[in-house]
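Side project, low priority. Logging it here so it doesn't get lost.
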Amino acid sequence: MSKPQSSTIVPDKEVEVESPSTPGVQALTRGIQILDIVASTPAGLRFTELLDQTGMPKGTLHRLLQALVEERLLGFDSRNQTYRLATRLFQWAHKVWDDFDLRGAAEPELERLRDLTGEAIRLGVMDGGSVLYIDQREVPQPLRLNNGVGSRASAYASGLGKAILAHMSLEKRRALLVDTPLEALTPHTTTDFDELIRQLDLTKARGYAVSIDEQNIGISSVAAPVLNHRGEPIGAIGIIGPSFRLPAERLHALGREVIEAARRTSGNFGEFAMSLGIQPRPLGVDRADVRCVIPASTFLGEGPHWSQRDGKLYFVDILAPAVHTGDPVQGTYTSLPVPELVGFIIPRTRGGFVTAMHGEIRGLDLASGSITTIARPEADRPGNRFNDGKCDRKGRLWAGSLAIDTSPDQGRLWRLDPDGRTYEMDRGFHVANGLGWSPDDKTFYFADTAKQVIYAYDFDLETGAIANRRTFVAVPASEGKPDGLTVDAEGFVWVAHWDGWCVTRYDPEGKVERVINLPVPRPTSCVFGGPDMQTLFVTTARIRLSAAQLADAPLSGSVFAIDTGIKGLADPMFAG
């Protein structure tokens, strides 16, 4: 018997199979597209914004939105006229996770990592105070450590254990560790509780854990947590091998790979702001006016400050915590390791420096390395850390914070006055970042990297008050993310684009005036300096770049200089 081309015969019945052009399939596809777009914007989207992003006819979009709201897949907030994900999706998510098969989901990723690295791969879960290995993939000549499926590793000394511990809530982490004696399994095992906590905070910020000779001499590992839909760790995936094949540099280069494997295992839940993908490298030859002036390998170079007093460029490495003193003329720098995540360094008028370490504002003496606490504005949020910071022209320090695990809307904007008093100026930021002021001191700029937005505020220099927050620039995702920024003497705003390979200059109205491409994908911040204040120094990062990406951009983590021909504004010192 002949049958229609678009149907399939099964025993005793005929089932119609719709083609992708069938209206029902089109509506389903478009509905999923809408849900995906709304899910990527935690703050919600207005109808006009969805109209722009979907490209759908107005009537079609309206009908689909109405249907999604009626089915409780979307919710509509009448107060600000925005659409957000609704409860039914979360109910479905719970059902998915109730039946989640961790081993089955991880299986292709374990095999992929084994083939990619040529090392042993482990999947583990927390069981009591130790990690239980529940699956593995071995190389042709496996590592004989008796640490296969069914064996255990200490939580505080293994890569998989530290990856899980770092992403637990502070309460669960402390409850698990409080009765766990930190035994010295090797001379490299961390046995001090406070130092372990600092390492776990660093692990959470990086997104992966490293263990070098801590569990067993001669064995190293790198691991990342598998997170559920609540951002809670349900296991970890790790690469384990001999230390001579997995030195520190290779472990960190593989950090991106284990994060990616863990995300794929869980369906990309958790830590959306921790980017792995980068935009394609811009076509064309490298610019002659862009020079690498301080070759370095910083994980996350940030917070540059040009000191006219010293003729030096100060900057930090957040994720290999250190303060650097750079000489762009000689192309050299010196480093002072610091004990915790550090966001920026700024000279003080009375001598010494002010920095942000973890959730505290601290004084630092570079010569002696001594550190003093000035203020603890984030004491009520131990899961937060400070990121970028700068001083206004009255010498007040402004600094933004964010959740170490990049949870949305946990960041705040603080002001520290020279007399030591702190003020919360604004809140609800995802990844608080670049700061700057217009030359007339009437506008304050502040970036939220994860939200792709640079805000502008009205600013009162005399009182230090801000008001009327509005969007100055919304950066398209295709152009990277707005990171650190500075303002030149003409009132134009220069912004480093994380994952965008460039620095952009915006006019005071927020329009692009020029784009300067760089030979690295992750510029992080910028500041004017040099004898004539016409050189733009740009810090960069290499964290979570794959080995192939680093081969394409080997200068990632270095400091670059751009000869702009435009005079910048000097960043003030802290007056306290």
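Brief comment: Residues 7 and 156 are 58 Å apart (CA to CA).
Revisit when time allows.
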